[in-house]
Amino acid sequence: MSKIFKFHNDVDTDQIIASQYLLLPSVEDMKGFTFESLDEEFAKNVQPGDIIVAGENFGCGSSREQAPGVLKALGIKAVVAKSFARIFYRNAINIGLPVLVSKDFYDVAGAGKEAELDLAEGTIVFDGVTYTCTKLPPYMQNILNQGGLIASLNQE
């Protein structure tokens, strides 16, 4: 089971990781400041395997790769949103962070509650109800399983 952290529509990359932290030497150094402007305790409370649930246009704003990077570094299992900004979606797949679209789950998901996400089946079970989300095609699932696009290309 994964704990749900819920965020609104139009969460931009500066809200995920603020620009002043981009000067830190690595994503590992940055991850403690993730979502600082929206939830000061997020980085302390999140555990590997937890999921982020968001509204529309998640990851809008700049194209900084550090935004999905800090989420992956914190151990986020996946981000499930109504929709994603295109560049955030691409960056997430490139680094191996699952990003899934579900039009229905956001409206019922409760922050702090738990859900069971099955990436292979494209389902989320919450309060005994199964919701559908993106079922990634096998080639994309393979990229994620190998740690992202660069890791996948390096293995070929």
Radius of gyration: 15 Å
Unreliable spans: none
Mean model confidence by pLDDT = 93
Strand segment count: 7
Give the % helix. 25-40%
**Distance separating the two termini:** 33 Å
Secondary-structure element series: EHHHEHEHEHEEEHH
Main sheet makeup: 7 strands, mixed
- The total count of helices amounts to 8
Global outline: globular
- Give me the side-by-side strand order of the main sheet: 4-3-2-1-5-6-7
Share of β-strand residues: 15-25%
The class by helix and strand makeup works out as alpha/beta
Quick structural summary:
By secondary structure, the chain is α/β, with parallel strands linked by helices. It has helices at residues 13-16, 27-30, 42-45, 66-73, 86-95, 105-108, 138-145, 149-155, and strands spanning 2-7, 51-54, 78-81, 99-101, 114-118, 123-126, 129-132. The longest helix is centred in the middle third of the chain and has 10 residues, at 86-95.
Structural write-up:
With 156 residues, the chain is of the alpha/beta class. It is 31% helix and 19% strand. It is built from 8 helices and 7 strands. The protein has a 7-stranded mixed beta sheet. α4 crosses α5. The longest helix is centred in the middle third of the chain and has 10 residues.
